[in-house]
Specification:
Blueprint: E1 4-8, E2 11-15, H1 25-39, E3 43-47, H2 56-71, E4 75-79, H3 83-92, E5 100-101
Parallel strand pairs: 2-3, 3-4, 4-5
Antiparallel strand pairs: 1-2
């Protein structure tokens, strides 16, 4: 599976279409970094609607992409996450820097 990237109105939408674990993060990380530096968006939105599992490697992936977006003058948010993903994000402290937007579709 491949993650999907769409840019619209200086917002980069990243639809992650696979589990985020130590087996997949390197491939996803390279593509995300490329797309973020290519578009230099004001906001990066991580769409978790198709993610069923995330481990600590996923936390590192998100924090690193958040830092890259912030370095380039942008921000980040998470949309469409399920309760188990939210629990991982909450326990790790990620939600203190990357908010979940519950109203996004």
């Amino acid at each position: 599976m491949e993650s999907k990237f769409e840019e619209e109105d200086n917002v980069l939408y990243i639809s992650i279409t696979e589990e985020i674990d130590h087996h997949t993060t390197e491939k996803i990380r390279r593509k995300m970094d490329y797309e973020i530096t290519r578009f230099m968006p004001r906001k990066v939105i991580f769409d978790f609607s198709k993610v069923s599992f995330m481990d600590s490697a996923g936390i590192g992936l998100l924090i690193g992409r958040y830092k890259l977006a912030k370095l380039l003058g942008g921000s980040a948010e998470i949309v469409n996450s399920n309760r188990s993903i939210e629990k991982v994000l909450e326990m790790s402290g990620v939600l203190r820097i990357i908010p979940i937007n519950k109203t996004a579709v």
